[in-house]
Protein backbone atom coordinates (compact mmCIF):
# COMPACT_ATOMS: atom_id res chain seq x y z
CA UNK A 1 0.00 0.00 0.00
CA UNK A 2 1.38 3.38 -0.97
CA UNK A 3 2.12 5.65 1.96
CA UNK A 4 0.97 9.22 1.44
CA UNK A 5 1.80 10.51 4.91
CA UNK A 6 4.78 10.45 7.22
CA UNK A 7 2.44 9.66 10.09
CA UNK A 8 1.28 6.45 8.42
CA UNK A 9 4.84 5.48 7.45
CA UNK A 10 5.94 6.06 11.03
CA UNK A 11 3.11 3.85 12.27
CA UNK A 12 4.25 1.03 9.96
CA UNK A 13 7.85 1.53 11.06
CA UNK A 14 6.85 1.34 14.71
CA UNK A 15 5.06 -1.96 14.07
CA UNK A 16 8.21 -3.34 12.45
CA UNK A 17 10.26 -2.27 15.47
CA UNK A 18 7.82 -3.97 17.86
CA UNK A 19 7.93 -7.14 15.75
CA UNK A 20 11.73 -7.12 15.70
CA UNK A 21 11.91 -6.57 19.46
CA UNK A 22 9.41 -9.33 20.21
CA UNK A 23 11.20 -11.72 17.85
CA UNK A 24 14.55 -11.08 19.51
CA UNK A 25 13.01 -11.46 22.97
CA UNK A 26 11.59 -14.82 21.93
CA UNK A 27 14.98 -15.96 20.61
CA UNK A 28 16.75 -14.87 23.80
CA UNK A 29 14.19 -16.67 25.96
CA UNK A 30 14.63 -19.81 23.88
CA UNK A 31 18.42 -19.63 24.34
CA UNK A 32 17.93 -19.22 28.10
CA UNK A 33 15.71 -22.29 28.18
CA UNK A 34 18.34 -24.33 26.33
CA UNK A 35 21.07 -23.17 28.72
CA UNK A 36 18.95 -24.21 31.68
CA UNK A 37 18.51 -27.68 30.19
CA UNK A 38 22.18 -28.10 29.25
CA UNK A 39 23.60 -26.96 32.58
CA UNK A 40 20.72 -28.15 34.74
CA UNK A 41 19.99 -24.64 35.98
CA UNK A 42 16.71 -23.67 37.58
CA UNK A 43 14.67 -21.51 35.25
CA UNK A 44 14.17 -18.76 37.81
CA UNK A 45 17.93 -18.16 38.02
CA UNK A 46 18.11 -16.82 34.47
CA UNK A 47 16.19 -13.59 34.16
CA UNK A 48 13.72 -13.42 31.31
CA UNK A 49 14.91 -11.00 28.64
CA UNK A 50 12.34 -8.25 28.99
CA UNK A 51 14.43 -5.56 27.33
CA UNK A 52 16.46 -6.68 24.30
CA UNK A 53 19.31 -4.22 23.94
CA UNK A 54 18.58 -2.97 20.44
CA UNK A 55 17.62 0.54 19.39
CA UNK A 56 14.37 -0.78 17.90
CA UNK A 57 13.26 -1.47 21.47
CA UNK A 58 11.84 1.81 22.79
CA UNK A 59 11.96 0.62 26.39
CA UNK A 60 15.69 -0.02 26.11
CA UNK A 61 16.43 3.10 24.09
CA UNK A 62 14.45 5.61 26.11
CA UNK A 63 14.65 4.12 29.57
CA UNK A 64 12.94 1.43 31.56
CA UNK A 65 9.97 2.72 33.51
CA UNK A 66 8.93 5.33 30.95
CA UNK A 67 5.17 5.21 30.49
CA UNK A 68 3.59 4.28 27.17
CA UNK A 69 2.63 7.85 26.26
CA UNK A 70 6.19 9.08 26.84
CA UNK A 71 7.62 6.14 24.88
CA UNK A 72 5.34 6.87 21.95
CA UNK A 73 6.27 10.55 21.88
CA UNK A 74 10.01 9.91 22.23
CA UNK A 75 9.90 7.27 19.51
CA UNK A 76 8.09 9.63 17.15
CA UNK A 77 10.43 12.55 17.86
CA UNK A 78 13.60 10.51 17.43
CA UNK A 79 12.31 8.90 14.25
CA UNK A 80 11.65 12.34 12.76
CA UNK A 81 15.11 13.58 13.81
CA UNK A 82 16.63 10.55 12.08
CA UNK A 83 14.49 11.24 9.02
CA UNK A 84 15.90 14.78 8.87
CA UNK A 85 19.43 13.42 9.18
CA UNK A 86 18.79 10.93 6.37
CA UNK A 87 17.21 13.60 4.15
CA UNK A 88 20.27 15.85 4.52
CA UNK A 89 22.45 12.83 3.79
CA UNK A 90 20.49 12.47 0.54
CA UNK A 91 20.92 16.17 -0.21
CA UNK A 92 24.67 15.77 0.11
CA UNK A 93 24.85 12.51 -1.80
CA UNK A 94 25.88 10.21 1.01
CA UNK A 95 22.58 8.37 0.65
CA UNK A 96 20.09 8.04 -2.19
CA UNK A 97 16.41 7.21 -2.58
CA UNK A 98 17.41 5.01 -5.53
CA UNK A 99 19.98 2.84 -3.75
CA UNK A 100 20.21 1.09 -0.42
CA UNK A 101 22.89 1.76 2.15
CA UNK A 102 25.84 4.09 1.90
CA UNK A 103 26.19 5.46 -1.63
CA UNK A 104 29.08 7.94 -1.43
CA UNK A 105 31.90 8.11 1.12
CA UNK A 106 34.87 9.43 -0.86
CA UNK A 107 36.65 12.76 -0.47
CA UNK A 108 37.65 15.33 -3.05
CA UNK A 109 34.45 14.65 -4.99
CA UNK A 110 36.15 11.53 -6.36
CA UNK A 111 33.69 9.36 -8.26
CA UNK A 112 30.72 11.59 -7.51
CA UNK A 113 30.09 12.68 -11.11
CA UNK A 114 30.15 9.04 -12.18
CA UNK A 115 27.39 8.23 -9.68
CA UNK A 116 25.32 11.11 -11.01
CA UNK A 117 25.80 9.86 -14.58
CA UNK A 118 24.72 6.37 -13.52
CA UNK A 119 21.47 7.78 -12.19
CA UNK A 120 22.25 7.11 -8.55
CA UNK A 121 20.40 10.29 -7.57
CA UNK A 122 17.64 10.24 -10.15
CA UNK A 123 14.67 10.51 -7.79
CA UNK A 124 16.16 13.18 -5.55
CA UNK A 125 19.25 14.95 -6.95
CA UNK A 126 22.21 15.41 -4.63
CA UNK A 127 23.77 18.86 -4.43
CA UNK A 128 26.67 19.08 -6.89
CA UNK A 129 28.73 21.27 -4.56
CA UNK A 130 27.79 19.43 -1.38
CA UNK A 131 26.93 22.80 0.15
CA UNK A 132 23.55 23.01 1.89
CA UNK A 133 22.91 26.43 3.45
CA UNK A 134 21.51 26.33 6.99
CA UNK A 135 19.70 29.64 7.44
CA UNK A 136 16.53 30.98 8.97
CA UNK A 137 16.24 33.60 6.22
CA UNK A 138 14.90 33.38 2.66
CA UNK A 139 18.30 33.85 1.05
CA UNK A 140 18.90 30.64 -0.89
CA UNK A 141 16.48 28.64 -3.00
CA UNK A 142 18.37 25.43 -2.14
CA UNK A 143 18.73 25.83 1.60
CA UNK A 144 18.17 22.84 3.87
CA UNK A 145 14.55 23.65 4.69
CA UNK A 146 13.45 24.10 1.08
CA UNK A 147 15.29 20.94 0.07
CA UNK A 148 13.60 19.12 2.95
CA UNK A 149 10.28 20.21 1.50
CA UNK A 150 11.38 18.82 -1.87
CA UNK A 151 12.48 15.55 -0.22
CA UNK A 152 9.14 15.09 1.54
CA UNK A 153 7.29 15.86 -1.69
CA UNK A 154 9.31 13.29 -3.66
CA UNK A 155 8.86 10.53 -1.08
CA UNK A 156 5.26 11.10 0.02
CA UNK A 157 3.80 13.10 -2.84
CA UNK A 158 2.25 16.54 -3.17
CA UNK A 159 -1.29 15.88 -2.01
CA UNK A 160 -0.50 15.88 1.72
CA UNK A 161 2.72 17.88 1.58
CA UNK A 162 1.74 20.59 4.04
CA UNK A 163 0.23 18.04 6.39
CA UNK A 164 3.49 16.09 6.38
CA UNK A 165 5.60 19.18 7.01
CA UNK A 166 3.32 20.16 9.87
CA UNK A 167 3.64 16.65 11.29
CA UNK A 168 7.44 17.01 11.31
CA UNK A 169 7.16 20.32 13.17
CA UNK A 170 4.67 18.86 15.63
CA UNK A 171 6.86 15.81 16.30
CA UNK A 172 9.81 18.07 17.10
CA UNK A 173 7.73 20.27 19.46
CA UNK A 174 8.46 23.32 17.34
CA UNK A 175 5.40 25.12 18.70
CA UNK A 176 7.85 26.67 21.18
CA UNK A 177 9.75 28.38 18.36
CA UNK A 178 8.50 31.73 17.16
CA UNK A 179 7.50 31.15 13.53
CA UNK A 180 8.74 33.26 10.66
CA UNK A 181 6.27 34.91 8.32
CA UNK A 182 4.86 32.17 6.12
CA UNK A 183 5.05 32.60 2.38
CA UNK A 184 2.69 30.87 0.01
CA UNK A 185 3.86 27.35 -0.73
CA UNK A 186 6.65 27.48 1.86
CA UNK A 187 7.23 24.82 4.56
CA UNK A 188 5.98 25.11 8.10
CA UNK A 189 7.40 28.48 9.27
CA UNK A 190 8.87 26.88 12.41
CA UNK A 191 10.96 24.39 10.46
CA UNK A 192 13.40 26.93 9.03
CA UNK A 193 14.79 28.26 12.34
CA UNK A 194 15.02 24.67 13.63
CA UNK A 195 16.84 23.34 10.58
CA UNK A 196 19.11 26.39 10.62
CA UNK A 197 20.58 25.16 13.91
CA UNK A 198 20.59 21.48 12.96
CA UNK A 199 23.91 19.67 12.71
CA UNK A 200 23.49 16.31 10.98
CA UNK A 201 26.09 13.56 11.01
CA UNK A 202 25.55 12.81 7.32
CA UNK A 203 27.95 14.82 5.16
CA UNK A 204 29.72 14.33 1.87
CA UNK A 205 33.27 15.57 2.08
CA UNK A 206 34.57 17.61 -0.87
Count of individual beta strands: 0
Q: Please write the string of helix (H) and strand (E) elements.
A: HHHHHHH
Helix and strand content put the structural class at mainly alpha
Number of domains: 2
Largest sheet, described in full? none
Q: Tell me the β content.
A: under 5%
Globally, the shape reads globular
* CA distance, first residue to last residue: 39 Å
- What's the alpha carbon Rg, rounded to whole Å? 21 Å
> Helix coverage percent of residues?
40-55%
Regions with pLDDT < 50 over 5+ consecutive residues?
201-206
Count of individual helical segments: 7
Overall average residue pLDDT:
82
Q: Key terms for this structure?
A:
49% helix; globular; 7 helices; 2 domains; mainly alpha
Architecture overview:
- With 206 residues, the protein is mainly alpha-helical.
- It has two domains: 66 residues, no CATH class; 140 residues, no CATH class.
- The chain has seven helices and no strands.
- The C terminus is likely disordered.
Concise synopsis of the structure shown:
The chain has seven helices and no strands.
Task: Provide the fold topology.
Elements: H1 6-39, H2 58-62, H3 68-92, H4 112-118, H5 144-156, H6 161-171, H7 191-196
Helix pairs in contact: 3-5
